[in-house]
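Subject: Sanity check before I submit

Could someone independently write out the structure tokens for this chain? I want to compare against mine line by line before I put it in a report. The sequence has 142 residues.
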Amino acid sequence: MLRFAVLAAGLAAFALAGCASDDVGPSKAELKARWDAENVYPQAYKRDLLAFLRTYLNEPSGVRAASVSAPVLRDVGPGQRYYACVRYTERKSTGGYAQPKDGVAVYVSGKLDRFFDEKREVEPFCKDVAFTPFPELEALTR
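---
Independent answer below. Compare away.
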């Protein structure tokens, strides 16, 4: 009988805890604080980009005219994120070269979080940034 009472009390407490957690959640201020806390300057942004592009590009060796911007904060989603633009001309598998391409790397907690290179999405981010040479990308190998 005592075992049944303890089990019933435990189940009741568990049920009440479940109900309480449905009503309580982080406030908007807490969510914004969490988002902002993840805005850590990406010290290794070039290294992260190189590691990503080595797997992303069809032909990572032979990239020409590579350049990159320093990471800057910009509104992305519900707050700000660090992002960097990269510009490069990729070698095609046929041996020729494609048109120059721009991409945007978005960083969270100092690490590369996502990359996009659709022209209409990239343009607003990269139209006014200052690019500097990125010879490490040109020296990339498989």
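---
OP: Matches mine. For the report I'm noting this point. The longest strand covers residues 79-89.
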